[in-house]
Amino acid sequence: MQARLLLEDGTLFTGTSFGAEGEKTGEVVFNTGITGYQEVLSDPSYCGQIVTMTYPLIGNYGISRDDFESIAPSIHGFVVRRYEPTPSNWRAQYNLGDLLKEYGIPGITDIDTRMLTRLIRHQGTMRGILTTSAKSVDELKEMMLATSIAELRNQVAQTSTHHVYSSPGSKERIVLVDFGAKSGILRELNKRDCDVVIVPHNTTADEIRRLHPDGIQLSNGPGDPKDVPYAAEMIAELLGEYPIFGICLGHQLFALACGADTEKLKFGHRGGNHPVKELESGRCYITSQNHGYTVNEASIAGTDLEVTHINNNDKTIEGLKHKKYPAFSVQYHPEAAPGPYDNSYLFDRFIEMIREHKRQNPQKPRQAKLMAAAKGEL
Ligand SMILES: NC(=O)CC[C@H](N)C(=O)O
């Protein structure tokens, strides 16, 4: 069956369908990972986006649910140069095309993904519509433009959990604020035996205090950080009270909470080999990334933030820490999945920060509050 991808600038790609029938609009972005397509398409940060893989052969190791980064993929389309329908992998349960069909995601193959990527690099990310229908180009363009910006701006609410739940452990209690969290973050906290409570994106500071956390983990998530201003307010309120570690969208929200600003990148960073320099040590780390927004460098001046990491390719901010409070964040993904695990030490750094904070504040805030409650002062 034929599939077509029409971009906002009028460019039309005609190829073969290998996913669901129908059409979907989304922001067209590219990922440069050689492997990791399962983690990419199940990463909630791609919610509403049509993802092109620059590596030309995709599908050869099939699909294994164990590699998912969320329960259900929320991408709007998948674009590959050459789709391989027959997996060669003992772990594969089914093939990539079947997965796309299962979740109603259109897929297109046999198109020039190099041309598409170069276009996005030159012109910046833009909207596109991926379809298997025979509709005219004018009709498709109208449909694409009719997709309201509001619809494309509501992704955090779509991907976050709606209920509080726990993943028990016997050590530090971490409240993980889920803006569309990848499973990898929870996996890393569980590996360290943390007692994790996962809360929805719109949880208030008071609701978090009531859970008596030792630390707060801010997850990744889709869309523009400015679409969830209430989250930045919650972070600003809890800053200094509990140690905080932000990842990707969590990093951007932490920056906004501290008075800095964010902006959109021309075509973003998505892949498993982005070089990041830690300024203190001068060391370069290879990182897993997926983001379209960044913290504006000039906006750091006048805040209590310090830049800790920069991207070696375009020098954008990749890490921040608070000068007074135990709080830090990174724009990249220390939980990897997909990509290198070189940065998982940041979770250990977070746990160490929590322990240090407790040593310095033996009574605060958890015990002090409990004692006050016991005395009837609260
Ligand atoms: N992975 C993420 O958390 C992405 C953050 C944000 N949605 C961005 O695109 O910049």
What does this structure look like?
This protein is about 25% helix and about 30% strand. The chain is α/β, with parallel strands linked by helices and about 375 residues long. It folds into 2 domains: about 1-150, Glucose Oxidase, domain 1; about 160-370, Class I glutamine amidotransferase (GATase) domain (Rossmann fold, 3-Layer(aba) Sandwich), CATH 3.40.50. A 10-stranded mixed β-sheet has the order 10-12-11-13-14-19-18-17-15-16, with helices on both faces. It has a 7-stranded mixed beta barrel with strand order 1-2-8-6-4-3-9. Strand 18 (about 315-320) and strand 19 (about 325-330) form a beta hairpin. Helix 9 (about 230-240) packs across helix 10 (about 250-255). The termini are far apart. The mean pLDDT is about 95. The structure holds glutamine. The site of glutamine has 11 residues, from strand 16. GO terms for molecular function: ATP binding; carbamoyl-phosphate synthase (glutamine-hydrolyzing) activity. Pathway: Pyrimidine metabolism; UMP biosynthesis via de novo pathway; (S)-dihydroorotate from bicarbonate: step 1/3; Amino-acid biosynthesis; L-arginine biosynthesis; carbamoyl phosphate from bicarbonate: step 1/1. Belongs to the CarA family.
